[in-house]
Amino acid sequence: MTYSIFLSHDSIPVILLENFLIPSEEEKNEVLHNIFEAKKEHERLNNYEKKYYSYAIKNDLNNYLKKLYNNYLLFCFKFFGNFNLSERNNTTCWAYCSNEKDFNSCWHNHERSSTINAVYYINIPKNSGGPLYFKIPKDDDNFEMFSYFPKNYDLVIFPDYLEHRPMPSSSLEYRTSINMEIICKNITSKNLFKKVFPHLYPN
């Protein structure tokens, strides 16, 4: 598998892998079908049952999601150095779909559910806008904002504490992403990411 790796040069610990895992047309269609089936099931829930605006992808008939997660995990082992997985680690992939008429998101992080967080973009309509925003606190009242416009098959990796929010797409075609998480044992997100971004973690 060949992909390009880019590290953020801003004051934000984000790793971008372009063309991380390019599916065949058959694989992509199958994954998108399974995602929209999960979306339909999620929409049938009442508001009390909807804890998140993303939804677990329950079917993986062609094992593409398993391959995606395993490649993500393998990359992190190589990139950050060996670490131990928590017994709570979960390989479930979660999906989020949005277009100009169907959008729901808020600022959030993944401190309660992961150590290393990743978003993989499996379908980005052309000229659809919809950046992913990150923000870093500067002091009690101010923060820095960063935007990133995803492309098909980008994998974006960032620490669990990093606040982020996808913004609305300007397309009727759905923008579709897959969220994955790694829960490590006895090491924090900051301790992992300072190996790659030491200038962001002076202490």
Supply database-style keywords:
globular; 3 helices; 203 residues; 7-stranded antiparallel β-sheet; 3-stranded antiparallel β-sheet; alpha+beta; single chain; 28% strand; Jelly Rolls
Structure description:
By secondary structure, the protein is α+β, with helices and mostly antiparallel strands. Helices cover 20% and strands 28% of the residues. A 7-stranded antiparallel beta sheet has the order 1-2-9-6-11-5-3. A 3-stranded antiparallel beta sheet has the order 8-7-10, with no helix packed on it. A two-stranded antiparallel sheet has the order 4-12. The longest helix has 19 residues, at 25-43. It is globular, with a radius of gyration of 17 Å. The N and C termini lie far apart (36 Å).
SS field, number of helical segments: 3
Helix content: 10-25%
CATH superfamily: q2cbj1_9rhob like domain
| CATH architecture tag | Sandwich
**What is the CATH top level name?**
Mainly Beta
Order of helices and strands: EEHEHEEEEEEEEEH
What's the count of strands? 12
State the secondary-structure class.
alpha+beta
Separation of termini? Answer: 36 Å
Average pLDDT confidence is: 91
Overall structural domain count: 1
CATH T-level fold name: Jelly Rolls
Which residues sit in consecutive blocks of at least 5 with pLDDT less than 50?
none
| Shape estimate | globular
Q: Main β-sheet, in a few words?
A: 7 strands, antiparallel
Widest sheet, order of strands: 1-2-9-6-11-5-3
How big a fraction of the residues is strand? 25-35%
In quaternary terms, these chains amount to single chain
Radius of gyration: 17 Å
